[in-house]
Amino acid sequence: MRQLVEAITDMREEEALRMAKELLDKGTSPLEVLEDCRQAMTAVGKKFEEGEYFVSELILAGEILKAISAEVKPRLKQGAGVKQGPKVLLGTVKGDIHDIGKDIVNFMLDVNNFQVTDLGVDVSPAVFVEQIKTLKPPVVALSGFLTLSYTAMKETVEAIKAAGLRDKVKIMIGGGTVDQQVCTYAGADAFGKDAMAAVELAKQWTEGK
Ligand code: B12
After folding, report:
1. Which of 113, 123, 155, 207 is 20 to 30 A removed from 25 (C-alpha atoms)?
2. Alpha helices, DSSP H only, in the chain?
């Protein structure tokens, strides 16, 4: 597994994809493969901070991760079919275009039978509000990887409040360095450190409903 982390970190795109496929084919848990990807992304982020990698490497890392995610996703699916679970409205907040973490949250919720509406990236507070009115989801999930996104999360929560909808939804936030402090700042109900945490929170908030 260590080798996969290294292949991604060193930008050996084809090799990384081949390795990931081989691991999955021989029965390695898809979640373990995702964990390797996460570790590699942390290493890539560090190299970027240290000036060894540039935005082009971030883009390539994003592409490698998307390709691997596409292999992982079908293996996590426990049979397609009409989703009947509670609705979750998901999106990356305004000003932020990171979507890899969000996409993983999307498919983990999806395989756990939630009906996810993914609004994509750079989603303005007004669009979240509009979609809450239309879809009436019990859970809203905001993703963001930039420090700037904390403000966007706060603005989104405030817009939901201003629209009189705050008591109709539970709001979770996550992505990158989001923690309890950011959660308090943004006025969200909880933060989750990974996609499984998102699933746990959504279950907790909707059980019995
Ligand atoms: C790939 C990447 C990119 C790609 C994104 C591609 C894509 N399609 O997403 C591209 C190249 C586009 C990019 C652009 C930029 N990036 Co960038 N990027 C990254 C990188 C390397 C990885 C992020 C990632 O996808 N990680 C993989 C996922 C799987 O990680 P994860 O956190 O474990 O995900 C889990 C949790 O976050 C959680 N989660 C996610 N969302 C949610 C939501 C909820 C509700 C819950 C509960 C949980 C949850 O679940 C996920 C799955 O388990 C990070 C470095 C890092 N270490 O994170 C920098 C990083 C986030 N980027 C950074 C920067 C600075 C930028 C740019 C400003 C660079 C530039 N100068 O242009 C731009 C910003 C563009 C914008 N407006 O958004 C900085 C942010 C610094 C900061 N504090 O603000 C970082 C930290 C790099 C660094 N160390 O400096 N980036």
Report:
1. 113
2. 2-9, 13-25, 30-49, 55-76, 100-111, 125-135, 147-162, 180-186, 195-206
Q: How confident is the model at residue 115 (pLDDT cuts 50, 70, 90)?
A: very high
Residue 208 is encoded by which pair of tokens? Answer: 């019995």
User: Tell me, what's the pLDDT at 89?
Assistant: 98
Query: What value, to the nearest 5°, has the Cα angle with vertex 43 and ends 144 and 74?
Result: 65
Which residue's alpha carbon is nearest to atom 56 within ligand 1?
Answer: 45
pTM assigned to the model:
0.89
Distances from the Cα of 196 to the Cαs of 3, 174, 199, in angstroms? 24, 11, 5
Distance, CA of 3 to CA of 9 (rounded, Å)? 10
The encoded tokens of residue 35 equal 């964990």
170-174/115-118 β-pairing = unpaired
Binding-site residues, ligand 1, Cβ < 6 A: 38, 41-42, 44-45, 48-49, 55, 58-59, 61-62, 95-102, 104-105, 141-143, 145-147, 172-176, 192, 194-195, 197-198
